[in-house]
Amino acid sequence: MSLTRLDIFNLRLFEKTRLEPCSGLNLVMGENASGKTSLLEAVHVLATGRSFRTQRMESVIRHGARDLMVTGRLRLDDRQVSLGIRKGGGRTVARINGKTVRSQSELAQALPLQVIHPDSHELLSGSPAERRGFLDWGIFYQSPESMAHWQNYRRALIQRNEALRRGLNDKALDVWEVLLAQSGEAMDRARLSYLDTLLRHVRELETLLPGNEGVDIAYRRGWREGVDLKTLLQTARPREREMGYTLSGPHRADVVFRRGDVLLADGASRGQQKSAVLLLRLAQVAAFRSVSGRSAVVMVDDLPSELDEVHRDAVLALLQGLDCQIFVTAIDPRQIDARGWLRFRMFHVEHGRLKEVR
Ligand SMILES: Nc1ncnc2c1ncn2[C@@H]1O[C@H](COP(=O)(O)OP(=O)(O)OP(=O)(O)O)[C@@H](O)[C@H]1O
Question: Measured in angstroms, how far is the CA atom of residue 37 from the centroid of ligand 1?
């Protein structure tokens, strides 16, 4: 699967821009503030409806414009699919093949995307929510039916917290706790099963990125081991009534990444962190392929930063082995050795103007 065409309207400094990428490596180069990251951001908006740089979509809309639009053409085996999204004034309209779709997640299913950018080390050192998002990316693609458990869980969690705050009786809590326990334990099983798959791919790829051998992922499910969630919720009522919210469950899950005795969150250099995050996220792409038979699009913003030549080349070799469509940005194209890539295109961007140079 690959994007064969991308049209961007009113996104950051792009007023109207077309990109025709190849199905292999697409290198986007340009000076600082030329618009390289914005180009990747456009692909991300198309796939997810969100930016990977900001929560405030208004700041992504070109100054002076009311809304932004990104459309793309995807080649899936021998089929063509067109995707589009328009965002502005708090409204989103998403389309597939010209038809408005109800949920943004339909675009995400059509265009699986993995992005690694300069803040991606937050997977290791940021908030647990970041790491739950990492797990849930995998589950969304490995077992989309599990997302229904997650939605049920979230709904029940809001209701139970409300009941706790309003001091409702045990009977009112019972209803929500049954739902929380059922959906929460299903979510936990899905996460465990995903981590199992993922770890196998980490083991397969780790030797390709020097310094990552033995990277390990320890899962913390969000409530005490050996206790079923329903019992735990019941026994925690007195304390949680005081607090006004639910203290345990898969919404408090986390994962810890380490290599031997070293916690990658604070015991690794920035370069080691970047290389570990690349390994973990690219293992997700490999796991996705093995489970679904489909390929994802991979984007690496500012690939050369923090990495020495050995690691840059190793990352490129790993990317090549994934056999996906890749977008890479760099200030200096000499830092990207694209010899050996049969499918390769290079673009130069300058003040929001894009030119194919190879
Ligand atoms: N909403 C907006 N409307 C118009 N221009 C914008 C908007 N938001 C940001 N810009 C401009 O976009 C440029 C930043 O683009 P971008 O971050 O994509 O560059 P880059 O090439 O990735 O830079 P770097 O290499 O420094 O990371 C800046 O010139 C900024 O002023």
Answer: 7
Q: State the pTM of this model.
A: 0.95
The interface predicted TM-score (ipTM) is 0.97
pLDDT in tens, 16-30: 999 999 999 999 999
To the question of domain 120-293 being in CATH 1.20.1050.90, the answer is yes
Residue 62 CB–ligand 1 contact under 6 Å: yes
Q: Look-up: residue for tokens 């796991």?
A: 287
* Pocket flag, ligand 1, residue 249 (CB < 6 Å): no
- Residue nearest ligand 1's atom 23 by CA: 33
Q: pLDDT per residue over 75-95, tens digit each?
A: 998 899 999 999 999 999 999
Q: The sheet that has 262-263: what strands, in order across it?
A: 215-220, 254-259, 262-263
**Contact, 5 vs 73, CB < 8 A?**
yes
34 lines ligand 1 (CB under 6 A): yes
Where do we find the tokens 């739950």?
Answer: 132
Whole-number Å distance between alpha carbons of 176 and 182: 10
Structure tokens given for 262: 């070293």
- CATH 3.40.50.300 residue window(s) in the chain: 1-112+296-358
Question: Residue 6's pLDDT band (boundaries 50, 70, 90)?
Answer: very high
**What is the CATH topology of the domain spanning 1-112+296-358?**
Rossmann fold (3.40.50)
Cβ of 32 below 6 Å from ligand 1:
yes
Instruction: Tell me the average pLDDT across 62-82.
Output: 95
